[in-house]
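Contributing: when you submit paired examples, paste them exactly as shown. First protein:
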Amino acid sequence: MQLRLLEYFVALAREGHFARAAAACNVTQPTLSAGLAALEEQLGKRLVERDRRYIGLTDEGRAALPWAQQAIAMIDGLEQAAETARGPLHGALRLGAIPASMPMVGHFTRALRAANPELTVSVRSLTSREIEQALGAFELDAGLTYLDHEPPTQVIAVPLYAERAVFVARTGSGFDGHRTVEWPEVLAQPLCLLHEGMQNRRIFDAHLAARGFAVHPGATADSYVALLAMVEAGGFATVVPKGYTALIPTDSWARVLPFAEPFPASRVGLVVLDRRPSSQLAQAALAAANAIKLPRGYRDG
């Protein structure tokens, strides 16, 4: 059985569209369709429901998909192990990161490339659920995500830091003389926050509910950069992880304040799929996570 046929099958399941799957595999659509037909003939089972377009996987296709994904990952791991037995690690490490962890990406990448200068890093901004799914489908080598709330399963985790939230308002919006803020005065502001599909927002809402509060933001986004841009433009305030304050220039437009009664910190860490043997890229990611030297702001939570 040719590995390429399995790659066609996995790409179609991921993309849900023949043309996009063919483009992802750098082949023509007829080549991909012929390859899928050949795979079905070898297995003696129909894997894909199709008419003139992709409809979905058959029951047999859904059952076969995890094995195809695992077979591809195992061959990739075999090639990496053979290639790096006497030389540096090459290739691209695929990292998924929740938006809250994006400031950590720079520290992780620096530690990774210090030990593996021939590696490149491909970073995708994903939700915690998407990271868990992509690790299970062997579409990521590692993830940066929450470890305690809706924790990912079947992973090896390295805790990196405890996330604290801070309030960000535009200078001149009424908070210039404050050293801290109280939750009632924060919730009285026009807020922009992450949307409810993001785990950070679900954690935030749960902590608010535990204190008898609820929030009704005037704008939502899936990016902290978008939230900060709305605050800078005026008319909104927001709540962001403390790590993002390092990206805001001092003496700038922003007034950044801690909470007088902060919520409990949330642990964020690096995760890789717990499987044996572990891939070379997963091992490199774990080593980099353990080697990260964090700035004082992270160490202090």
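Second protein:
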Amino acid sequence: MTWAWTWYVVALVALNIAGCAWLLMSHSRRRAGDPKPDETGHVWDGDLTEYNKPLPRWWINLFYITIVFSVGYLLWYGVGHLRGFGHWSSRTEWAQEKATEDARLEDTLRPYAGKPIDALAKDPGAVAIGRTIFANTCAACHGSAGHGATGFPDLTDDIWHWGGTPERILETILDGRTAVMPAWGETLTAQGGASAVDDVVAYVQSLSRPGQPADAAAGRGQALFSTVCAACHGAQGKGNPMLGAPDLTDSYWLYGGGKAALHRTIAEGRSGSMPAWRPALGETRARLVGAYVWTLSPHRAPPAEAAAP
């Protein structure tokens, strides 16, 4: 809250308190010329009358006590930048409560500190905590069940573009990943003509369809692949986990394996980023969520007590 807003609120509160006090004082006393309490000039249906009786004194005093309490409350707690005599602030209270909860969380996480994620994956309690962290942190991109979406990897299979060892998974969670597929449209067209991108698409599709005879387009694409794409994906298209370059010989396509999707990937490039969660989660919580992710693989069944929903 700025100083301008602080003084605006102070003036508004003071005006309301003064107005309430004036209203009570001006209407709780009888004025000259007022009819007596047992006199009335209003009669309905012959016997229904209205008397001019003031509010009981105890009722009026309760209102005065409320006004005194409100003034004391403001003096003790303050308003905006004006600190009260109690030196209270919402920021200080939040910091104290956060410190208490952090200490409690630290006690909860201490038994899991420093343990490998594949070892934690055998602990139902650790996996349950990891599943909760995953739901709050990772599910927005990878889905509540870890199946991913276009541009977001499926965590329930055994395909890991950056490596699927416990150490590599933990590294991915802690420090994030940045993957860039350059746009090769102009380069390929300059080397192989207008059909160059389609030729490379044909060859790349043939890599994941073993046993099918390669056509002429795939043959031309193979030559272009070896000069442009092999540096990252390897001569056989097996990929490179150190670079995040995917294996092109399996049936999994992060951005789609159709001809149109692959044409766009090759011609226009792709850019993907996995945020670094070390600042937000810390290492122990990253290990716990890594343990849960580890259990999602079909080759690593999770404990029955912590099976994924």
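If you have annotations for the second protein, write them as plain sentences, like these:
Residues 101 and 280 are 15 Å apart (CA to CA).
The mean pLDDT is 89.
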